[in-house]
Amino acid sequence: MMKPEFENIKLNKNAEKMRFEIEVNGHFAYIDYKETTHLIALIHTEAEPELAGTGAAQAVVEKTLAYIKESGKKLLPYCPYVFAYLKKHPEWTSIVDESFPAYSQLSN
Q1: What architecture is domain 4-106?
Q2: What are the residue boundaries of the N-acetyltransferase domain, all occurrences included (predicted)?
Q3: Phi, psi of 56 (to 5 degrees)
Q4: I want to staple 60 with a disulfide (CB 3.0 to 4.6 A). Which of 29, 51, 67, 103 is the partner?
Q5: Which residues, 6+ apart, have CB-to-CB distance to 41 below 8 Å?
Q6: CB-CB neighbours of 75 under 10 Å
Q7: What is the residue extent of each domain of the chain?
């Protein structure tokens, strides 16, 4: 679960930098993405060093998954961090596109 201090921080879809991001005290946690008409691929999750261990990376993942769910698009979780999160939280499997190569590993 996301830490309470992140709940009211707005997710920004930064189209210029091609990343979903949250800003915490002037520092960013973000996920690089690629997008098509029906799919959003999450490539890499990162938090600036100042946010290490704060839960910011997990918060940006949860907010981004919620965004994808609301958008009606399907997810391609290429980012290992996102993939590991999905394995621990199978309730999100429904938004993963079944064409994703490791899809079968999520439903175990």
Answers
A1: 3-Layer(aba) Sandwich (3.40)
A2: 12-97
A3: -65, -40
A4: 29
A5: 33, 34, 35, 75, 76, 78
A6: 24
A7: 4-106
